[in-house]
User: Which sequence fits this backbone?
């Protein structure tokens, strides 16, 4: 594989998920992570430019959305605060736990995405079996690690990370048994990227806050999770061997993924985020004289109508207008959905922050710049593929190297500041 070509591919995938994950910062939770994850997965399909992947583009986006979205149940606010302290042990612990949390996001997201890529008529993924095993893994490991052993990462907050860890164990056990090694590679590198991005992003947040620059450095951390997680997932994908599958898709197989991606996820985001109290308080925080109540109602209706319009257009274009039982999805049609989806998420971010009324949230306009940049880069970027296999010893070395880097970042971080607001202590 041409190294420059690979770097361009990783850059575009990183910008795609990085932008979406930064936007997710306004919404949080599972639904926000799922929306971002779907965008990240679809970007890899567009970069790969494989016709057989276009055929299952919506299924791939849904798998990525589900995988990255599951991690949204994990609470990490207190963990972020550990890395804002002064004691080496607490700060190092904070960085390592963020690495684990970000890693769980990527491991599940990359694993489900990779399995969907690998699934074929000859070797189909047994989804009911996998979901059952992951559910059982979540229950078993949560009660073992939390209820029985009392291994608490972030007391007194939720310890749902243990459930995600159990899902990850079950997911890998399934991939090992069924020899889905390419999917394993995607999961591992997505996990390494997401974990490194979360911890390194928090380091950047600490340094940014110390600098005194008036900017949303929490959002920098979120962008880093998505950027490195997306780049890692793309690297695992483009350095693995994949069987060529059918380039035609059935009309009925598109309907459910499209409805979930274009209607259900955005509607849940709207329902859970565009509350009257939140919008009124946001508007009054930067413009006390504005008609906050009137603007809030307008924003709520505009956001809802945008979701309904997007869903209606998508279902019509990709299902109703398709009369033949089987057809081929083209690059242009997948790209259209990608940019409409990312564009809607960007508009939602601007609406929920009311950044259209003020420049007080300058990072909101950087999202637009990122979307424009993707518009220039996406079609020009095409990945070639290589098969680098599983190299567990090298992965172990890379893991140890990352752990050492966090020790250095810990020493640097605690030397740059005194006690910061929001600092937490895990150990006295």
Assistant:
């Amino acid at each position: 594989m041409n190294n420059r070509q690979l770097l361009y591919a990783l850059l575009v995938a990183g910008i795609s998920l990085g932008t979406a994950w930064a936007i997710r910062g306004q919404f949080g939770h599972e639904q926000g992570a799922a929306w971002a994850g779907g965008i990240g997965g679809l970007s890899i399909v567009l970069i790969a430019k494989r016709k057989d992947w276009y055929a299952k583009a919506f299924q791939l986006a849904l798998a990525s959305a589900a995988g990255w979205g599951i991690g949204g149940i994990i609470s990490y606010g207190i963990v972020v605060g550990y890395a804002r302290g002064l004691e080496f042990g607490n700060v190092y612990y904070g960085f390592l736990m963020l690495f684990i949390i970000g890693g769980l996001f990527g491991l599940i997201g990359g694993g489900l995405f990779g399995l969907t890529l690998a699934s074929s008529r000859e070797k189909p993924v047994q989804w009911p079996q996998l979901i059952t095993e992951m559910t059982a893994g979540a229950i078993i490991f949560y009660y073992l690690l939390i209820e029985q052993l009392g291994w608490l990462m972030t007391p007194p907050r939720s310890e749902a990370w243990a459930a995600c860890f159990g899902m990850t164990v079950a997911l890998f056990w399934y991939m090992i048994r069924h020899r889905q090694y390419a999917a394993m590679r995607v999961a591992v590198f997505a996990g390494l990227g997401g974990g490194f991005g979360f911890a390194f992003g928090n380091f950047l947040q600490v340094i940014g806050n110390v600098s005194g620059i008036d900017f949303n450095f929490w959002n920098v951390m979120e962008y880093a999770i998505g950027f490195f997680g997306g780049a890692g997932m793309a690297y695992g994908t483009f350095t693995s061997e994949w069987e060529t599958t059918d380039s035609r898709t059935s009309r009925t197989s598109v309907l459910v993924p499209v409805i979930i991606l274009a209607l259900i996820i955005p509607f849940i985001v709207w329902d859970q985020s565009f509350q009257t109290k939140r919008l009124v308080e946001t508007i009054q925080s930067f413009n006390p004289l504005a008609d906050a109540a009137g603007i809030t109602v307008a924003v709520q209706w505009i956001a809802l109508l945008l979701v309904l319009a997007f869903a209606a257009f998508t279902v019509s274009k990709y299902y109703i207008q398709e009369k033949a039982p089987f057809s081929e999805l083209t690059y242009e049609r997948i790209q259209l959905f990608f940019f409409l989806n990312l564009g809607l998420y960007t508009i939602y971010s601007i609406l929920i922050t009311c950044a259209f009324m003020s420049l007080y949230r300058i990072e909101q306009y950087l999202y637009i710049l990122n979307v424009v940049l993707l518009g220039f880069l996406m079609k020009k970027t095409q990945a070639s593929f290589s098969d680098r296999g599983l190299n567990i010893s090298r992965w172990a070395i890379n893991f140890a190297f990352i752990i050492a880097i966090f020790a250095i970042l810990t020493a640097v971080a605690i030397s740059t500041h005194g006690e910061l607001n929001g600092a937490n202590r895990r150990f006295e």
User: Anything to note?
Assistant: The first strand starts at residue 249 and ends at 250. Strands lie at 249-250, 326-327. The two ends are 50 Å apart (CA to CA). Residues 118 and 243 are 7 Å apart (CA to CA).
